[in-house]
Amino acid sequence: MNTIVTDVIQKLISGHRLSIEEFKVLIDNNCEELRRELALKADSLRKNIFGNHIYIRGLIEFTNHCKNNCYYCGIRAGNGNIVRYRLSKEDILDCCKQGYSLGFRTFVLQGGEDSYYDDDRMEEIVSAIHSSFPDCAITLSLGERSYDSYLRLYKAGAERYLLREETSNEAHYKKLHPESMSFSNRMECLENLKEIGYQTGCGFMVGSPFQTTENIAQDLAFIQDFKPHMVGIGPYITHADTPFANMQNGTLEDTLLLISILRLINPRLLIPATTSLGTIHPLGREMGIKAGANVVMPNLSPISVRKKYMLYDNKICTGDESAECITCINTRMESIGYKVITDRGDFPFK
Ligand code: SAM
Ligand code: FES
Predict the structure, then answer these.
(1) How many A from CA of 77 to the centre of ligand 2?
(2) What percentage of residues in the chain have a pLDDT greater than 90?
């Protein structure tokens, strides 16, 4: 590695902060040696705070209806080739009950932007989970809603919210989304979530169409300033029934490098080793953990709907074998020296 790269690494390790130009140096020089060095540092920083513990979140994909038409997403409104579904409050509570008995203490409700789940319905669902499982954290990932809606759901018992910015560059955002979607609104939603008091997660797809090195560096700089509690990144993977069907997938190598950089930006961050990372490579999630991730999100959705929440082609954990998700994750984590723990796994506030 040349001295410019070595200097940038030292600066990141000592100050947990870089300029956009410096982030670009790391991204442009991505190689095995650099990834190994950053992963070693990221892993040791993470171990200082979290030991070898890995948090699990039970993911409940409760609706694949969506009013949006993000060009990359398999459940976009314009995809007429999928069977749509919605889970009832009872279905969702059943998923939580099953998850609770398996040791989950965080439930993540994720879905498309589906107006059927208006504030009254969502509030009822969140309140029901909160009162049935008072020792569990509720995370929502429902896309963009109003300040008042976020506030109501927070008061009903949801404490965390995941909303990826997808890109922090407006011109790039416009290449990924139709005119009807607004970059500034997405950013405002993130600010609102944080202001209300949610543990807030942002993030982006690695290698999304038209993404440049500059865009990724801008995202890292945004994350530095926004100071989220969680950051979800995973490779972009193409879906045959979207306008981006012929685009290239993001890479394992870029995602691993970026996970390590995120850990070095903030050692306390909650960073999932995502399903898309496990889809791009059979051992992607294990490699993500070794690079600095500390969360996995096994699927708790009913087996009957899993294939219908197909965000991208070949998504893993959607077949019959997925009933065993948690056993599979435990074994995978133990095989690399980590331990899945049943804990709410909150952000470690100082
Ligand atoms: N509707 C909510 C929202 O917009 O935040 C949550 C659901 S959305 C499907 C969850 C995430 O899936 C998105 O933030 C996006 O980054 C990711 N995603 C969608 N399509 C993808 C693809 N083709 N490859 C990888 N990730 C994808
Ligand atoms: Fe709405 Fe993907 S387009 S969830």
Answers:
(1) 7
(2) 95
